[in-house]
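During the reporting period the student researcher (J.K.) took over the structure-prediction task from the postdoctoral fellow and processed the backlog of single-chain submissions. One of the processed entries is reproduced below for the supervisory committee.
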Amino acid sequence: MAKQTGKKSALHEKEGIPSPPTVNAKALQQVVSKRRIQPTATDLIQGIRQGDITALSRAITLIESTQSQHLEKANAVINGCLPFANQSLRIGITGVPGVGKSTFIEALGMYLTGLGKKVAVLAVDPSSRVSHGSILGDKTRMEELVKEPHAYIRPSAAGDSLGGVARKTRETIILCEAAGFDTIIIETVGVGQSETAVHSMVDFFLLLKIAGAGDELQGIKRGIMEMADAIVINKADGDNVAKAKLAKTEFQRALHLFPAKKSGWTPLVSTCSAFEKKGIDAIWETITSYQTLAQENGYFETKRRAQNEYWMLETIQEQLKTTFFTHPKVMNALAHYKEAVSQHQMSPFAAAHALLELAKMPND
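J.K. obtained the following structure tokens:
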């Protein structure tokens, strides 16, 4: 057996200096206590009118909530902001994934803030049909614009909404306008016939394209072309300049096939390089030219009134759907009818009719 000498091994570990706490406990308690205090609708309205970004963000979160107890407060905030809204130019921007929407919006946003504009970007991120999650990475992509004090970027998940427009984007526009933002940019997730949703809430609809991605005329559908007020060929830089010019010519020819717009505006096609920030000034000139024309001939206000009516009807449909699926009798019977339909014991139409009849019955 080894003899015990009582000496400490040279390999022993000395006690280190304890690390200071990474979080200030007092400051943390203050933050937590403030979060527990929910601002009233009046507080949020006042904060929004004063340009408080925190109040604006909290109000948007409130109106995006699907909780029924938040509905009354959300409506109060919207109604309080409504008299101060409708003073902005609303621009919708769409294009296939990879066309450079975020880069283009950042370039346009930085250009506009340089002109003294206040820009709000409502970026709608696609939601996964599997996990139902969204990345919401638009702020990461717009590194310069996110630091600009006269810009506000709000990413929202598209969810199940048609056309890649978040369910409450329309109301969010009102809050941003009340906060003093004079230019609202809405970025959608892609293109298709369902882009009617974003077209119905903006004044100017811009379609982004890239050259050299196959047959330009085959890759776009008639519906989206008819809605576009301008088509911009992005990434016109480097070796792609010649292709962008050719694509511009092809789209200009294609636009002549469509009927004239009610606004009296003739859609224009241009090229730009959002990465090199070239051509952005010409695009803004196109947008302002459209605004001047539409305001002078009265179409600007006529379109906005029609949009208000459209969204009233859309909201009714949405509320009816919510009311139906939250009806106690429907909730209790839905699983039974789903099983009957899946087992071919009942037709989908008969099951739907039976559930609708249940929804007419008073709650117990």
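The committee noted the following: The radius of gyration is 27 Å.
J.K. will present the remaining backlog at the next meeting.
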